[in-house]
Amino acid sequence: MRRLLLSPLLLISLLCQADAPQRLISLAPHTTELVYSLQAGDKLLAVSDYSDYPSAAQSLPRIASYQGINFEALIKLQPDLVLVWQGGNKPQDIRKLQTLRYPLFISSPARPLDIADEIEALGALLGKSELAATLAHQHRQALSALAEQYRRKTPLSVFYYMHPKPLMSIGSGAWANHLLSLCNSDAVFADAINDYPEVTMEEVIKRQPQAIIAAQHQPMTAILEFWRPWLPLLDMDASHIIQVNPDQLHRFSLRLSEGVTTLCEQLDRLR
User: Which end of the chain is more exposed for a tag (fewer CB within 10 A), N or C?
Assistant: First the structure.
């Protein structure tokens, strides 16, 4: 099992108190979702920008953005647990929270199965261990079933991208590449020297993917318009372009299994 990150102060706090934390602040959209999945959304005092799921989260105050944490607002709220994302929140902000001696739950998933470990750990903190165990089991089972369903299928080469300008794809270590693996598909830029390479259209055409996956909120009409001039050179038509919900796939929440199921089904139609 993956080792979860808990701040030293949180470990001390767990040893010294029997009561679960009651005043939570979530500084990443996916940790907000995890709290709601554990039916503890009523304990949230504030959240980060883009914490828009479930809908109840949209009414909560925002005290963190890409610019960092609003420490003045956070201190006024007097949380007894702050959920942070190592890799999303600024390292200096996390260090400052530690200096201020706030108990931290530090989320750092690297692979889809890590989400199950994290919800179990968070559930233990919030007094929701039984529910967390059920949710974690369902998540592991769903991912295992997907891997088994598609592992004997003919592999597909896929161009997966998040941004059209610049055109940014994924390498072997990118989060989305782990999702493609569940569908027995391969990213055409898996040999890139970094996980999120910026590529040219000429490079995409040269690699001749069998499918294009657009992880974007743009209307599908705009996505098709972007690719239309290039489809003949790719030996494709519009049916080879798949749009996926980036929130389901790129947030480390329990919605992931639903998003990957849809992704695999769409890819399977092209085999």
Answer: N
pLDDT in tens, 215-271: 999 999 999 999 999 999 999 999 999 999 999 999 999 999 999 999 999 999 998
What are 188's two structure tokens?
A: 């055409």
The superfamily in CATH containing domain 153-268 is: Nitrogenase molybdenum iron protein domain (3.40.50.1980)
- 211 φ, ψ to 5°? -155, 155
- CA separation for the pair 49, 57 (Å, rounded): 10
CB 140 within 8 A of CB 120: no
* Distance from C-alpha of 77 to C-alpha of 57, rounded to nearest angstrom: 17
Cα 115 to the chain's mean position, in Å? 9
Alpha-carbon torsion angle 16, 83, 133, 53, nearest 10: 150
Which residue, 33, 32, 25, is CA-closest to 259? Answer: 33
Is the separation of the CB atoms in 46 and 25 below 8 Å? Answer: yes
Instruction: Give the model confidence (pLDDT) of 18-40 as tens digits.
Output: 578 999 999 999 999 999 999 99
CA dist 48 and 40 (Å) reads: 17
Written as one letter, the residue type at 244 is V
Domain with CATH 3.40.50.1980 in the chain: 5-142, 153-268
- List all residues 6 or more positions away from 6 whose beta carbon is below 8 Å from its beta carbon: 14, 104, 105, 106, 121
Rounded to an integer, what distance in angstroms lies between the CA atom of residue 120 and that of residue 68?
28
Tokens of 232: 């003949």
Helix axes 114-125, 129-150, angle to 10 degrees: 170
Whole-model pTM: value is 0.89
Cβ atoms of 186 and 193 within 8 Å: the answer is no
201: amino acid identity, one letter: M
